[in-house]
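Q: Could you fold this chain for me?
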Amino acid sequence: EKLCLPGGIFISDKVYDYVKNLNNIQTRSIGPFKLKNITKEVEIFAVTNEGVMAPPPGYYYKINPFGKAPTAPAIPAKPARTTTVTPPVRAQTVRRDNVRKTGRKRKFAAGLLAFFFGVFGAHRFYLGQRELGLIYLGATLTGMFILKGLDFLIPIVAIIGFVDALLLFTMPSQDFNAKYNQDVQQEKPAQHVERKNETITRPTEQPQQTVNPVELEFEKLWTKARAEYQEYDYAEAIAILKQALEIKPDHSEAHFLMACCYSINENTDKTLYHLDAAVAYGLTDIDRIRTHRDLAYLRMQPVFESFVNNGFRLIKELPEPVEDLLQSEETVSPDLLEQLQELKKMRDEGQLTEIEYMLLMKKLNK
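A: Sure. Below is the predicted structure, expressed as structure tokens.
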């Protein structure tokens, strides 16, 4: 059971002998394993039917010293020459085009400013619309302090601010980002590099490194997904994270990042699903679920409280009860009774898990 992924079904070789001729059960071998209280290695098979979580080929070779998955060959490093570099003393300034750094604007923050301080145009200043903000502020100050006859402007500006708040709260996140977060770019500051007289010695030999193609592919996707997330392209980040999770379905940080993307897109169900998976796979610092800014939408939903009270896990619904074959009024053939007794004996001896036992019981009942 420790080897099995959540939502997956693993069976031993003995159970495989019973179900290998059934057309409606598809399996794939993941190699022999040493199991607890069993001296001989047992070959494990994963059920690969649609809807069942199954590991990708070669996923278990790291934890299985007896597995059959091949390892990538070592790539020898080229020997480097030993050279001495003595550059002159000088200071070099690397100039780059600086881009004005603008903080990312939040839809809920803008809505709150419009609701409470819209009469002063605070939300317009926050969204970078200084001209409109000055118009709001000027109309309010004119009615309050300058011309008493224009005090009717104050409730008008207040109503406009209230309408702005409603529009901001109901605006989809993608439309808000496209309108107010287009010019958000990371600042590239100028770098000042000072070189001094120094001697650089390169080693003549470098140790050989073993390249794991599965790890390399996952790291490539993981780095690309985080870059898209930082650039606010959440749809592309979700698509890349799906590919990464097919390689490493137990990566807790990938599930957490996926939950943040779905929360920004206001998809509560998928956000809770990936947060549940992240906690199940050992997410560090679970308090981030309470404090992370991109999960603010989820924390406003009523279901979040029950999710927290359940230990940051989804409440699983119990399956429908299985019909008791022994109390059935239909007649049971002697061969079927023998098979049922054999399955019960294997379960009592520990050769079958409870899930494997129930699966075979259902097949015999059909």
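A (continued): The beta strands are 10-12, 27-33, 42-47, 74-75, 90-94, 191-195, 209-210.
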